[in-house]
C-alpha cells in the first residue's frame, strides 16, 4: 500500500466521485492514526482545519524525519514521492486548501530533488496545478529543505521554519488546525500519514481497515538498524509480534549476537528489553510497556551494548537538539547528559527528580519525552547505569 | 458572555480569552513567572507558572493556557510546586554567580525558598559588551526568557534583538551580533527595563553601582 509508487488514481477518483465531505468521512472512518510519532487521528485534524474559519488554508507535510535510525520518510520521499504529494492534494481537497508545503531535511540531499521532479511531473500530467482533471479543484505544492534541527519535526517549530523564523516550539493552543502557517488553519501531517490517503480515497475505509484486522487500521512502515541481518524499510500489519518482526523480517541480530533491548519509534520512546519481545506491535500494547509505535524506527541493541552508554548517547542527543526555548529542556537535558558523561555514580533520587521536571515541565515532547527511555533503563537495567547507593 | 473559573477555593468570572494567569491574578492569588511581562504576548518558555487544573493531563502553564468555563485550578498543587522549584534551581545553576537581590530571578528564587541547587554544572561564559553608550550586555546572566526580544519587537517595534544559539548555548544578540550600536536599536531601554536578571542593563545604573558617578561629578 505504502511502498508502491503513487499514480494519482486516488485523487482522480476522489475529485470525480467524492465530495470533500465524503472524502473526509472516509478518512475519519478509516481512523488513520498519525505516523509521525504522536498517533493523533488524522481525520480529526482534517475536520478541525476544515471547520476553522479562514479564507486560505494550508497543508503541510512533515518530512523533517530526525529520529536517529529512522529512514521511513526518506524512503517515501525518494522512492514514492508522488504518493506523498497525492496525499497532500487529497488533504487539500478534503479541507479546502489550495496549497501545500512539504519540508524535508537538508541531511537528505536526494529528497528535495525527488519531490520536485514528482511535483513537476504531476503538473505536466494535470494532477497538480489549476483545475485538476477539469473539476475546478486547484492544488499545488512547494518543496522546502530544513536547516538541521531535530525539534523542527515538532509541528509549531516546523511552521516557524517554513515561515523563515527560528525553529523553536510555540505553546499550543492555538493549534495549527486553527492558527497555523501564516496564521491560517493548517493541516500538519507526517509524510507517511499522507501516503496512506490515496489508498483510502480509492478503496474506501473498509478496505483500509481490512489491512490490519482487529488492530489499528492500515499498515505501518518500520525500519531496522545495522545490528540486524537485514536492515531496511518494511511494510507491516499492526498487531504483529515484535519477535516476528525482528527475527523473521529483519533476520535477527548479526552472526553470533542476540537482542538485548529495542528502542522502537524514536529517541523519545521507552526501551523494550528482550524479555518482552512477544509484545504486539501496536499503540496500546507498546504503551503498556512504556514504549510506543512512534515513527516506526526499530533500533536493536545487541548483547555487547552497555546501557549506560545508551543513556549517555540519548541524553547527548537530547541536549544537543534542544531548541533552547523552554527552561527545563534547555538546562535539564544538559545537566542530565553531563552526569552520564562523567565517571561519577549517579544519585537515583535526584536523577528522578530531574526527570520529573523534564517530563512535566517541558514545552514540547522533546524534553518531555526523553524521560521515557530513562525510566525504562531504570526499570530494566538499573545495574548497568552506575547508580549510587 | 464570561467564563466561570475556580482558582483554589474562589470562583470568579473572567472575560472570554482570558488566560489562567489572568484569572489567578484577578482572584488575588499569584504564581511566580520569569518569562512573562504583562506588556507582551505570553511566551510559555520558563514553565515557572505551572499549575494543576482538574481534568487536564500533567501540569499546565498559566500564562499561555486560555480559561475554559468551569475550569478548576490549583495554584498550590504539590507536584507543580516541586517541578517549578526544580526548574528555578536549574536556572540558578546556569549563572556564574547568584542573581543580584533586586532582580526578578532572585525574588522568584527567594519566594520558592531556594537556597541550594541540586544539579550544579557548567555555567555560561562571561561575555560583556559595553560598546553602546547606554546599554550593556552581560551575556552570562541571560536566561533566554525572550522578554528583551519581545519588548523590542512588540513594545518598541525596533526589531533590534534576536535569540541566538540553541539548547544550553541559547542567548541573545543585537542585530547580527555586532552589538547594539550596529543594530536597529533606538536606545529606548525597554529591554533593560524588562530583563529579569541584569543581562541587559542601562550603563548609568552600572556606573552608579560602581560609585564612578560621584567620582566623575567631582
List keywords for this structure.
heterodimer; A: 389 residues; alpha/beta; five-stranded mixed sheet; four-stranded parallel sheet; 9 strands; globular; B: 218 residues; alpha+beta; three-stranded antiparallel sheet; 7 helices; 10 strands
Figure out the total of helices of chain A: 16
Beta-strand content bin of chain B: 15-25%
- Principal-axis shape of chain A: globular
Name the average pLDDT of chain A.
Answer: 97
Q: Round the mean pLDDT of chain B to the nearest integer and report it.
A: 94
Largest sheet of chain A: 5 strands, mixed
Greatest interface and its participating residue counts: A-B, 34 and 40 residues
**Main beta-sheet annotation of chain B:** 5 strands, mixed
**Strand order, biggest sheet of chain B?**
2-1-5-3-4
Strand percentage of chain A: 5-15%
Rg value of chain B: 19 Å
Oligomer: heterodimer
Strands of chain A, total number? 9
Order of helices and strands of chain A: HHHEHHEHEHEHHEEHEEHEHHHHH
Cross-sheet strand order for the largest sheet of chain A: 6-5-9-7-8
Q: Alpha-carbon distance between the termini of chain A?
A: 53 Å
Number of strands of chain B: 10
Write the layout of secondary structure elements.
The complex is a heterodimer of chains A (389) and B (218).
Chain A: H1 9-17, H2 20-30, H3 42-51, E1 58-63, H4 72-79, H5 81-95, E2 99-104, H6 111-124, E3 140-145, H7 155-162, E4 186-190, H8 191-195, H9 197-209, E5 219-224, E6 233-237, H10 242-249, E7 259-264, E8 271-273, H11 283-288, E9 297-302, H12 307-321, H13 327-341, H14 348-361, H15 365-369, H16 371-380
Parallel strand pairs in A: 1-2, 1-4, 2-3, 5-9
Antiparallel strand pairs in A: 5-6, 7-8, 7-9
Chain B: E1 3-7, E2 10-14, H1 20-26, E3 50-53, E4 60-61, E5 72-74, H2 78-93, H3 104-111, E6 128-129, E7 135-138, H4 147-156, E8 161-164, E9 171-174, H5 190-194, E10 200-202, H6 203-210, H7 212-217
Parallel strand pairs in B: 1-5
Antiparallel strand pairs in B: 1-2, 3-4, 3-5, 6-7, 7-10, 8-9
Amino acid at each position: 500500500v505504502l511502498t508502491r509508487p503513487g499514480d494519482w488514481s486516488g485523487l482522480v477518483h476522489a475529485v470525480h466521485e467524492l465530495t470533500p465531505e465524503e472524502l473526509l468521512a472516509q478518512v475519519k472512518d478509516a481512523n488513520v492514526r498519525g505516523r509521525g510519532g504522536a498517533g493523533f487521528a488524522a481525520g480529526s485534524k482534517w475536520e478541525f482545519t476544515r471547520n476553522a474559519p479562514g479564507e486560505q488554508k494550508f497543508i503541510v507535510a512533515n518530512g523533517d524525519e530526525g529520529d536517529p535510525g529512522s529512514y521511513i520518510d526518506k524512503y517515501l520521499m525518494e522512492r514514492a514521492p508522488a504518493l506523498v504529494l497525492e496525499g497532500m492534494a487529497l488533504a487539500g481537497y478534503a479541507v479546502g486548501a489550495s496549497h501545500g508545503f512539504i519540508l524535508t531535511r537538508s541531511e537528505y540531499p536526494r529528497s528535495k530533488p525527488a519531490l520536485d521532479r514528482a511535483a513537476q511531473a504531476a503538473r505536466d500530467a494535470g494532477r497538480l496545478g489549476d483545475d485538476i482533471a477539469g473539476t475546478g479543484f486547484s492544488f499545488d505544492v512547494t518543496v522546502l529543505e530544513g536547516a538541521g534541527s531535530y525539534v523542527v519535526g515538532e509541528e509549531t517549530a516546523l511552521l516557524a521554519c517554513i515561515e523563515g523564523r527560528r525553529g523553536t516550539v510555540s505553546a499550543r493552543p492555538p493549534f495549527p488546525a486553527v492558527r497555523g502557517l501564516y496564521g491560517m488553519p493548517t493541516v500538519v501531517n507526517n509524510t507517511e500519514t499522507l501516503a496512506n490517503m490515496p489508498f483510502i480515497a480509492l478503496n474506501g475505509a473498509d478496505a483500509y481497515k481490512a489491512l490490519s484486522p482487529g488492530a489499528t487500521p492500515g499498515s505501518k512502515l518500520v525500519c531496522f538498524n545495522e545490528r540486524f541481518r537485514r536492515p531496511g524499510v518494511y511494510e507491516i500489519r499492526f498487531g504483529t509480534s515484535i519477535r516476528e518482526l525482528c527475527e523473521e523480517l529483519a533476520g535477527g541480530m548479526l552472526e553470533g549476537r542476540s537482542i538485548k533491548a529495542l528502542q522502537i519509534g524514536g529517541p523519545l520512546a521507552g526501551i523494550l528489553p528482550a524479555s518482552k519481545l512477544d509484545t504486539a506491535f501496536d499503540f496500546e500494547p507498546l504503551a503498556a510497556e512504556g514504549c510506543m509505535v512512534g515513527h516506526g524506527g526499530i533500533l536493536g541493541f545487541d548483547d555487547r551494548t552497555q546501557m549506560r552508554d545508551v543513556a549517555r548517547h540519548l541524553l547527548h542527543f537530547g541536549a544537543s537538539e534542544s531548541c533552547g526555548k523552554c527552561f527545563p529542556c534547555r538546562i535539564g537535558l544538559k545537566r542530565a547528559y553531563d552526569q552520564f558523561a562523567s565517571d561519577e555514580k549517579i544519585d537515583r533520587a535526584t536523577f528522578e527528580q530531574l526527570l520529573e521536571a523534564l517530563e512535566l515541565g517541558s514545552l514540547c515532547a522533546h524534553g518531555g519525552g526523553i524521560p521515557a527511555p530513562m525510566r525504562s533503563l531504570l526499570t530494566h537495567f538499573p545495574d548497568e547505569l552506575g547508580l549510587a547507593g | 458572555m464570561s467564563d466561570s473559573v475556580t482558582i483554589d477555593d474562589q470562583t470568579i468570572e473572567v472575560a472570554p480569552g482570558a488566560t489562567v494567569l489572568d484569572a489567578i491574578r484577578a482572584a488575588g492569588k499569584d504564581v511566580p513567572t520569569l518569562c512573562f511581562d504583562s506588556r507582551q504576548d505570553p511566551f510559555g518558555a520558563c514553565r515557572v507558572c505551572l499549575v494543576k487544573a482538574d481534568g487536564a493531563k500533567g501540569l499546565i502553564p498559566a500564562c499561555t493556557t486560555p480559561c475554559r468555563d468551569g475550569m478548576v485550578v490549583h495554584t498550590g498543587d504539590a507536584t507543580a510546586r516541586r517541578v517549578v522549584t526544580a526548574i528555578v534551581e536549574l536556572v540558578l545553576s546556569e549563572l556564574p554567580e547568584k542573581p543580584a537581590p533586586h532582580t526578578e530571578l532572585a525574588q522568584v528564587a527567594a519566594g520558592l525558598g531556594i537556597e541550594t541547587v541540586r544539579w550544579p554544572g557548567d555555567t555560561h561564559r562571561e561575555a560583556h559588551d559595553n560598546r553602546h553608550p547606554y546599554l550593556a550586555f552581560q551575556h552570562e546572566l541571560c536566561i533566554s526568557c525572550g522578554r528583551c526580544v519581545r519588548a523590542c519587537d512588540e513594545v518598541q517595534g525596533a526589531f533590534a534583538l534576536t535569540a541566538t544559539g540553541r539548547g544550553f548555548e541559547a542567548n541573545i544578540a543585537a542585530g547580527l551580533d555586532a552589538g547594539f550600536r550596529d543594530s536597529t536599536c533606538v536606545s529606548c531601554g525597554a529591554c533593560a527595563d524588562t530583563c529579569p536578571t541584569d543581562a541587559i542593563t542601562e550603563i548609568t545604573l552600572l556606573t552608579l553601582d560602581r560609585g564612578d558617578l560621584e567620582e566623575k561629578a567631582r
